[in-house]
């Protein structure tokens, strides 16, 4: 399984780095017209289909749907909070993943794309773990923290968070979108793909080979111009020189830094998508994702500046940048693209398949 080469690093990244977009947003006062965003940022009017919208190449419709024998009717999920392995039905997982990862005010076509991606990635993990068991998972397919709102959540948790004014409307919308595509997955070479996703790209998604070990033909850069319109697409976080020195000392114990802080970060290299792939710190060559994790940044698409008193880390987008951009998917949906086109755009070369009868209603 070629995609399995990136599994271990990718699963960790999804648990740690993907923002929990959907549930960690307070319901807006006008849910039909507001855009919920990561980290409980202020909402704004969603972008409409206007002449000034960034151009997006029109993706080809995926090949005709064929049946796949790879489906399952439930997943074994290791609950990181309780330490227990739970059996979660396919439907409960997919709906919970959409509720956790995507705001209920997003476009239904974007929700459908997210549902297929979440289903596919869980199924990918299931098959990988049958071949390569991980003792840390205690026999589970993957780990999640539903009580902490990571990876997926329960309907009860979602309703409690949204409150009675929005719970019925939001859950009905998510259910309708997810149920309509519950029987579909993405495959490459007849195997479920590692369908990575993130909140906001840097305007162009990143090649998986620049982020994790291994590569996948369907996890390659894709234009995502709608992300430029995302709230807090560009954010600058400030650190004093002393704060930065302390963080770097924890990252690289025994590090020797130059007397001039302006020289602490040098030889910075960016990928064609704008993500930092290498930076020299105290003579050590690091990846941009190491800097992101150490400093708690939103993205490793960044510029680093020093003004004589402290550092400014200006980041673009939110998340690792690989695969489907959730905000980009919503933007595309609002321009009239279908979930099939959205998936074809962010996972080029993957095929939309119907799982075998019995694993989802209506297939």
Quick overview of this protein structure:
The protein has 363 residues and is α+β, with helices and mostly antiparallel strands. It has 9 helices and 15 strands. It has helices at residues 7-16, 90-101, 108-131, 155-162, 167-180, 241-251, 288-295, 326-334, 339-346; strands spanning 66-68, 74-79, 85-89, 142-144, 184-188, 191-192, 197-198, 234-240, 265-270, 276-281, 284-286, 302-306, 310-316, 324-325, 351-355.
Q: Your description of this structure?
A:
- This protein is α+β, with helices and mostly antiparallel strands and 363 residues long.
- It folds into two domains: 2-195 and 340-355, no CATH class; 234-316, no CATH class.
- 29% of the residues lie in helices and 18% in strands.
- The chain contains nine helices and 15 strands.
- The chain has helices at 7-16, 90-101, 108-131, 155-162, 167-180, 241-251, 288-295, 326-334, 339-346; strands spanning 66-68, 74-79, 85-89, 142-144, 184-188, 191-192, 197-198, 234-240, 265-270, 276-281, 284-286, 302-306, 310-316, 324-325, 351-355.
- The protein has a four-stranded mixed beta sheet with strand order 1-15-5-6.
- A hairpin with a 5-residue loop joins strand 2 and strand 3.
- Helix 2 (90-101) crosses helix 3 (108-131), helix 2 packs across helix 5 (167-180) and helix 3 (108-131) runs antiparallel to helix 8 (326-334).
- The two termini are 26 Å apart.
- Residues 1-5 and 11-54 have low confidence and may be disordered.
């Amino acid at each position: 399984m070629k995609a399995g080469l990136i599994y271990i690093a990718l699963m960790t990244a999804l648990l740690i780095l993907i923002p929990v977009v959907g549930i960690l947003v307070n319901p807006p006062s006008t849910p039909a017209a507001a855009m919920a965003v990561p980290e409980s940022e202020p909402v704004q009017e969603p972008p409409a289909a206007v002449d000034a919208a960034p151009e997006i190449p029109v993706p080809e419709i995926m090949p005709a749907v064929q049946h796949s024998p790879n489906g399952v009717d439930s997943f074994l999920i290791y609950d990181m909070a309780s330490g227990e392995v739970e059996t979660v039905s396919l439907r409960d997982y997919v709906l919970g993943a959409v509720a956790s990862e995507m705001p209920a005010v997003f476009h239904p076509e974007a929700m459908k794309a997210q549902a297929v991606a979440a289903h596919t990635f869980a199924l990918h993990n299931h098959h990988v773990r049958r071949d390569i068991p991980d003792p840390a998972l205690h026999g589970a397919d993957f780990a999640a923290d539903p009580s902490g709102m990571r990876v997926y959540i329960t309907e009860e948790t979602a309703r409690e968070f949204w409150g009675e004014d929005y719970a019925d409307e939001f859950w009905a919308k998510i259910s309708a979108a997810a149920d309509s595509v519950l029987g579909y997955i993405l495959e490459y070479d007849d195997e479920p793909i590692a369908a990575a996703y993130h909140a906001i790209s840097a305007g162009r998604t990143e090649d998986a080979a620049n982020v994790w070990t291994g590569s996948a033909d369907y996890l390659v850069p894709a234009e995502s111009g709608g992300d430029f319109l995302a709230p807090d697409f560009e954010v600058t976080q400030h650190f004093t020189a002393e704060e930065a020195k302390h963080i770097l000392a924890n990252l690289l114990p025994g590090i020797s830094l130059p007397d001039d802080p302006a020289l602490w970060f040098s030889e910075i290299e960016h990928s064609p998508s704008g993500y930092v792939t290498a930076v020299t710190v105290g003579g050590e060559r690091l990846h941009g994702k190491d800097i992101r994790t150490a400093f708690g940044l939103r993205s490793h698409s960044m510029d680093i500046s020093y003004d004589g008193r402290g550092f400014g880390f200006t980041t673009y987008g939110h998340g690792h940048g690989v695969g489907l951009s959730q905000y980009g998917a919503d933007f595309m949906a609002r321009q009239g693209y279908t979930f099939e086109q959205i998936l074809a755009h962010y996972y080029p070369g993957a095929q939309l398949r119907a799982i075998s009868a019995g694993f989802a209603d209506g297939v």
